[in-house]
Amino acid sequence: MFQLWGKLWKQNSLLNDVTISDDREDTRTHKVFHALEEICLHFDLEQPIWLDANVREFQRHAKTRFGKDSFIEDVDFDYLEIQIIEED
């Protein structure tokens, strides 16, 4: 089972969170992108832009934060954090 945890933060307070599970036979990358899409649908957000820093951080720690600069639209939170909490 693959699980990705998405959390919205504002002023060091957790606003909302959701966990997306995926048990399909697919690559880790595809599972991450699919789960991130589901997280964004849940929070009614557009897809964030993956900056180089996000890619490096996610590869190292299986966790990254998308700040306001990762979104084209104006958002009412400080950052969206995603973290893998379970992998096959």
Characterise this structure.
The chain has 88 residues and is of the alpha+beta class. Helix content is 30%, strand content 36%. It has two helices and four strands; from the N terminus they run E-E-H-H-E-E. The chain has helices spanning 28-43, 52-61, and strands spanning 2-10, 13-22, 63-67, 79-86. A four-stranded antiparallel β-sheet has the order 2-1-4-3. The longest helix is centred in the middle third of the chain and has 16 residues, at 28-43. It is globular, with a radius of gyration of 12 Å. The relative contact order is 0.27.
Instruction: List how many beta strands DSSP finds.
Output: 4
Radius of gyration: 12 Å
Q: Uncertain spans, ≥5 residues at pLDDT below 50?
A: none
**Relative helix content:** 25-40%
Biggest sheet statistics: 4 strands, antiparallel
Strand and helix layout:
Blueprint: E1 2-10, E2 13-22, H1 28-43, H2 52-61, E3 63-67, E4 79-86
Q: Which features does this protein show?
A:
single chain; 88 residues; alpha+beta; four-stranded antiparallel beta sheet; 2 helices; 30% helix; 36% strand; globular
